[in-house]
Amino acid sequence: MSSIPSSVPLHYTIAQSTSHSGKYGPEHILLDRPQDQSSRWSGAYQGNNAKQWILLKLDQMSILKTLTFGKFSKPHPCNMKDFKVYVGITEDNLVEVLHGGLKNDTTSEAFPIRHINNAQVCFPTRYVKIVPLSAHGQNFHTSIWHVSMTGISDKKYVEHIYRIHEEHRESTVLRHVLKHLRQRRLLTPYQDILSRAFTTVEHPLITHLHTTLVLQGAFKDSEKHMQTLSSSGLFSTFLQSSHPYAAWNKITGTDRDGDTPTPRSGHAMCMDHVNGIVYIHGGYNSDKCLDDLWAYSTREDEWQKLSESTYSQSGPSPRSCHKMAFDAKTGNIYVLGRLTDVDAARVPVNRRGPPASTNTGPLNPQRLTQPHSSLPPLPPHPTTDPPIANTYNSEFYLYHTRGPEKGSWRCISFDTVSNGGPPLIFDHQMVVDSERQILYVYGGRVLDGDWDTYKYAGLYAYSIKTGRWKILQPVENTPCSIPARHGHSMVLDHKTNTLFILGGQREDKYLSDMYTYDLSINTATELFSNFTAAGGPNACFTQRAIIDVELKEIYVFCGLITDSTGMTGYLPGELYNWLYRYGARPGTWTRILPEGDQSRRPNPAPSPGLNRKEPCSRYAHEVVYNTKSRQMYLFGGNASLDDLDEDDSMDEANVEGIRRMNDFWKMEVCRSVLLSNIRSDQTHELGRPGAEEIIRKATYRIRRQQFREMCEDSTPTKALMFLQSQVSPVVNHDDQRETEDYRSLMTFLLAPKPPAPSLVPPLFPTSVTMSDNPSPLSDTGSTESIADGWTKMKSRAGTPDDGGWTNEIAEASDEDTDSFSRISFPKLSAELLRSVEDPLEKQQRGSGKGSAMSADRYAQRTEVFESLLEFVSEWDKEPSGSLLDFVTRNDNRDDDV
């Protein structure tokens, strides 16, 4: 398809519903009548334990994107609170796509509906099932007032998506069938289906590993092959999903005179990732605002002061709380916004001055009664500041880092408002889309001299090519807009043309919400109303965020947070870092742990003293990201005096226990590998990161199996020497579970050797002969069908004649023994199938390389092979689960949901 059709309202009818209360039938939700108290569907049962639902049928199969709940004109105890939404092509096969909650207010709420599965395949919908879980009032009937939906209904496009989804489902089933066949040693039908289906069930390197390890038992070659898998990038997805931790390194480079930027907070930073240069401008140093400009070369580990005063060079005046953005295509730096000494001095006396603070608790946290604590009483404006009459003009500057104008400033606009741009703001956010040559500005507090009223800016776009501003979202707080804020974070995914906006402060409240803004269709979507409740960071002010578009990860460096009592301005005892992983599926939050074992606890105590391995907690700092090296750089900010080292460089002045910093850090996100032990429900986190740990663990598993086979095939002395010389060196003896598993290997050495492989496993009754159980691969055998074998079994007393299920188990009698044997060991048992060598297996194993392996050995090797695949991405390996899982899910299906 050339383009994706736009979303339109989707029409529907009521297919079914559970019983309703009185006159409040399901047909009422078709109409939006917020003033009519009777225009609603109410379930027939009170309380939150009754199973109630309403099933909607779209007029035609569509791609459902949003579902909106209308509400009554005032809060109501019957309003639905928690709910789930299921969708599907048929009413008998529905999947959950949303678990959400509604506020007890009068504002309609729209929810994005997941329409892309975990395999990134879009799927259509015909039926929508809404399952209320609770109402806002206890022991009230749950009510739904109005439901509307939007999505894609273009018939040609939807049919195209339907065919793709059906092909995906067919492929998934086929992959499970193929996996099942190979697990059962049916290699000939496996290969026959594979060749006829013109598909692959896994990466060719995985297939080679199966041949080498399972069929040939070439253990050394299997170990070498793990290196090949690593170098081919097959472990990358697993490593990315492993738990991240921060590897910090303090940067001590200076300029040629031995100087570095002075301590400051509220400064601006940006990065030229092409040349590896970090730029820093301005900020506040406890005495005045600055307008110096510095550059740090990551390649040479050296600072350079580019300007002592940018204002004296026709650039920005001294300022803080402004923003810089680097355009990689042109090499230009853009500067917008400010808070200056003059601005702060004009704050009314009753609204300025040093914030009151108290030091309480073992961590000596800093509680700030004012939302913006970096602004103490300031002296009169400096001589370098613009004329007082122009204080509230929003200047827009450009700095050239390349070309003939390198090192020069240009004022693009003396006042962006006159060009349709934002007013004078501070604590906003600004990003550049270098490919599309568009700059985006969102939020920030408006600076106009009125400190008694909170005013904010909306979302603006600036075309670098045309020099024109455009407002994308006004600041008015409509149901479909992003709530206004300042001190927040914003990053851009240029591949999907999406902005991510999170956190910050609105009036006196710290925020923990997160939104996306699709720039292609100018639509805002709420991802989290409270990401703290979803396992993410606390509500935060002046947190910093950066994005890795390739990895689809956002890294958040927290600042001031809300404490357990709800007070703002709490500076935690350590620098909180978080990772948000996003994509087509719902995003997840993960805490980025400091390197080592010191922060495995939820809230570890700070570690003051010399040789700090990571930065102390702070706010009003800045962070930038090198997309090439995937390294983050943090500079300055405000820190508590109680959490500093003796060698931390800072400003001499302090404001009630807060000091400005000029420490400079580099951080990389590494991955600690979560490795499964013998029990699949247990995992253990190891400190060794990267693919090396995967290869070590894989080597241990391979040699473990090799030792088990040596216990059966070789002398005890040879097996014991192998255990000590080859298995022990690849064991992580710091891992208690792995050490215990290693010690348990001695039981294989002492166990009696198994009998020679037999076509009929010894677990079968002696009365069962090969004529009764022919090989599924043999050409001869009984003509009796499997169905005949089951129907000729003697029926037990009390067994329903219709074959239906029953909860009653009849007592066993002696005459039932033969029937029990037949039931326990049906003709096509997995054990029997694995007991016969497939002709293709013998061909791949090679002639003259020993006899066929036993069923147990095949099962053991297959188990080791599949355990190694946990390190490989889903689409590089055979599918997870099995056909038996599908049977179990079908047998245990809950028809009420």
TrEMBL record:
Biased composition regions of type Pro residues, renumbered to the chain: 374-385
Biased composition (Polar residues): 356-370
Keywords: Kelch repeat, Repeat
Cited InterPro entries: CTLH_complex_component, Galactose-bd-like_sf, Kelch-typ_b-propeller, Muskelin_N
Location of the Muskelin N-terminal domain: 10-204
Classification via Pfam families: Kelch_KLHDC2_KLHL20_DRC7, Muskelin_N
Keyword Hydrolase: no
Gene Ontology cellular component annotations, sorted alphabetically: cytoplasm
Location of region: Disordered: 348-385, 592-614, 793-821, 836-857
Stored PANTHER family: MUSKELIN
Protein's name in the database: Muskelin N-terminal domain-containing protein
